[in-house]
C-alpha cells in the first residue's frame, strides 16, 4: 500500500519540489499551502491532494488533521524570511517570524504526533536552514527561529523514539532560485538604516554570486534520504553549500 506524505509550504521552492519528487516515486502526497492552486502542479494526479493550511492558525491546523486522515510522514517546510539589521527590525516582524517558522512547526508536530504514537510508526521531518550551521550576518531573528527548531527537533526525536516515531532535520543551503531575500516580508533595503548599508554591501554582493548553492531538487532528495534512512541519523544537510558547512563544523 502506498504511503502518504504531507508537506507544508508547497506553493513554490523546496516544498513544491519535494511534493513532485514523492509523487514521481508513487507516493500519495498531501500538499498544503495558504491558497491551494491546482495549476501549480500541472497535470492532475489521483495521488495528489491540495489542502489549505495556515500554520499560525490552530483552527486551520485542526481542519487539516481532520481532512488529511492517516499520514505516514509530515514534512514541515513552510516558512517566511527576514533579512536585515536586527536593530531596524520591528518586533512585529520578529514575532511573525517566530509564529510561522518556530511555533507553526511545533504546532504541526503536536497535531500529528497522536496518530503516529497510537500506530507506533511515522516520521516528522523539520526543514530548517544552514543558518543553524554557522553565523550569518543580517539574519539574526531568522537564525533564531531556525535554531529553535533544531533544538526542539533533537529533543523531540528522543521522546518519540520510545513510541516508534522518527524525527529528522533537513538543513537546506542558499538557493538563489527561491528568491529568499526578494520575497521577505519587509525588503532588506528597508532594514539597513544609516551605516548598516555600507556594512551590508559586500555581504549582499557575495550572496549575488555565491561559490556554492542549493537547488530545490537537493532539498527534495535530502527529504527522500531522511525518510528512507535506517541509521538513526538526525541531520541531513541539503545542497553543496550546506554539506560544506556541515563538514566544516
Description:
It is a single chain. With 249 residues, the protein is an alpha/beta fold. The protein has a single domain (4-248), classed as Rossmann fold. 43% of the residues lie in helices and 14% in strands. A seven-stranded parallel sheet has the order 3-2-1-4-5-6-7, sandwiched between helices. Strand 1 (4-7), helix 1 and strand 2 (28-33) form a beta-alpha-beta unit. Helix 2 (58-68) packs parallel to helix 3 (91-119) and helix 3 runs parallel beside helix 4. The longest helix is centred in the middle third of the chain and has 29 residues, at 91-119.
Strand content: 5-15%
Span of the ends, CA to CA: 41 Å
Tally of extended strands?
Answer: 7
Q: Structural class of the secondary elements?
A: alpha/beta
According to CATH, the homologous superfamily is NAD(P)-binding Rossmann-like Domain
Order of helices and strands: EHEEHEHEHEHHEH
**Shape-level CATH architecture:** 3-Layer(aba) Sandwich
**Rg (CA only):** 18 Å
Q: Please give the count of helices.
A: 7
Would you give the CATH topology? Rossmann fold
Amino acid at each position: 500500500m502506498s504511503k502518504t506524505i504531507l508537506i507544508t509550504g508547497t506553493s513554490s521552492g523546496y516544498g513544491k519540489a519535494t511534493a513532485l519528487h514523492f509523487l514521481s516515486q508513487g507516493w500519495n502526497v498531501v500538499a498544503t499551502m495558504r491558497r491551494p492552486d491546482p495549476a501549480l502542479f500541472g497535470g492532475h494526479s489521483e495521488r495528489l491532494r491540495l489542502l489549505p493550511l495556515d500554520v499560525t492558525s490552530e483552527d486551520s491546523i485542526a481542519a487539516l488533521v481532520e481532512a488529511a486522515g492517516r499520514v505516514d510522514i509530515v514534512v514541515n517546510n513552510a516558512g517566511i524570511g527576514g533579512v536585515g539589521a536586527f536593530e531596524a527590525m520591528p518586533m512585529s516582524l520578529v514575532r511573525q517570524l517566530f509564529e510561522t517558522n518556530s511555533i507553526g512547526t511545533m504546532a504541526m508536530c503536536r497535531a500529528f504526533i497522536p496518530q503516529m504514537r497510537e500506530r507506533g510508526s511515522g516520521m516528522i521531518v523539520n526543514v530548517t536552514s544552514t543558518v543553524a550551521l554557522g553565523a550569518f550576518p543580517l539574519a539574526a531573528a531568522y537564525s533564531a527561529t531556525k535554531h529553535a527548531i533544531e533544538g526542539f527537533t533533537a529533543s523531540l526525536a528522543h521522546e518519540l523514539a520510545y513510541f516508534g516515531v522518527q524525527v529528522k532535520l533537513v538543513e537546506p543551503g542558499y538557493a538563489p532560485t527561491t528568491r529568499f531575500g526578494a520575497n521577505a516580508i519587509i525588503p532588506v533595503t528597508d532594514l539597513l538604516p544609516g551605516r548598516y548599508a555600507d556594512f551590508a554591501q559586500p555581504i549582499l554582493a557575495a550572496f549575488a554570486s555565491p561559490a556554492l548553492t542549493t537547488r530545490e531538487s537537493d532539498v527534495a532528495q535530502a527529504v527522500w534520504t531522511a525518510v528512507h534512512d535506517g541509521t538513526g541519523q538526525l541531520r541531513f544537510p541539503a545542497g553543496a553549500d550546506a554539506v560544506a558547512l556541515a563538514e566544516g563544523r
